[in-house]
Amino acid sequence: MRSHVGVVASYDFTREAELRRWFPPGVELTLTFTEQVPYRDNLELVSRLGDPGLLAEPTRTLVERGAQAVAYLCTACTFAGGAAGERALREAMRHHGAARALTTSGAVTAALHAVGARRVAVVHPYQQPVDGLLSAYLTTSGFDVLALTPLGLDAVEDVYEVEERDVLNKVLTGDHPDADALFISCTALPTYDALPHLEERLGKPVISANQATAWALLAAVGERAVGPVP
User: Other C-beta atoms within 10 Å of 170: how many?
Assistant: First the structure.
């Protein structure tokens, strides 16, 4: 039987084409989206999108279409409430029928543990205090955050204009020599083609949000992701 996985993305997700590159041809991927939420700043946006109630309708839709596993694809939305908030999101998806449920933040910590990382450097697009919530989530998950480097965006909406070369350059300057791995946070950032080049330059694993989500979602149904070719 063909594997079928589902993704609930935040309403403002714009990287569907890139996300699909991680999935092999034999796996069906269906996306749904949360409803739009009002916000005044980055913290209010991710806090509202971290409400488990937003997942009810999109999760049920994915289950009805045959998804065997469901992921909530949004990094900050799934770490803003800490470990308890991330767990509540997974529980909500299961409550609404998902046989297997995961989040981007949970997938990221699993990926970092899988590559043996304990000390990490992080590059992200967030404003304060969301960056602090990310650091706290990773620390609670068992990691030492040695560097936390922002992309330097002035507004939430600026993330949609970021190009892959911008991410690559910032990652190269945001690494820490003692970090075991580097994490690029936010599903809105383009990273697919840059990852192998970054790993070659830095000599360590580089994990992105979309990559980790795809890994975990495919593993949940016994499949493997399609990685970029250097």
Answer: 20
Q: Where do the DSSP E strands lie in the chain?
A: 3-9, 27-33, 69-73, 101-103, 119-124, 144-150, 181-184, 206-208
CA 84, CA 133: separation in Å to the nearest integer? 13
Question: What's the pLDDT tens digit per position in 136-190?
Answer: 999 999 999 999 999 887 666 777 778 888 888 889 999 999 999 999 999 999 9
Between CA 89 and CA 80 the distance in angstroms is 11
DSSP structure string for 43-64: HHHHHHHT-GGGGHHHHHHHHH
Helix, strand, coil % in the chain, rounded to nearest 5: 45, 20, 35
- Check whether the bond before 129 is cis (ω within 30° of 0): yes
Residue 94 identity: R
Write down the residue that tokens 């190269």 correspond to.
Answer: 172
pLDDT in tens, 28-48: 999 999 999 999 999 999 999
Nearest Cα to Cα of residue 208 among 131, 137, 115, 108: 108
Report how far apart the first and last C-alpha atoms of the chain are (Å, whole number): 32
In 39-143, the DSSP E strands lie at 69-73, 101-103, 119-124
Angle, helices 164-174/194-202, rounded to nearest 10 degrees: 20
| Contact of 143 with 120, CB cutoff 8 Å | yes
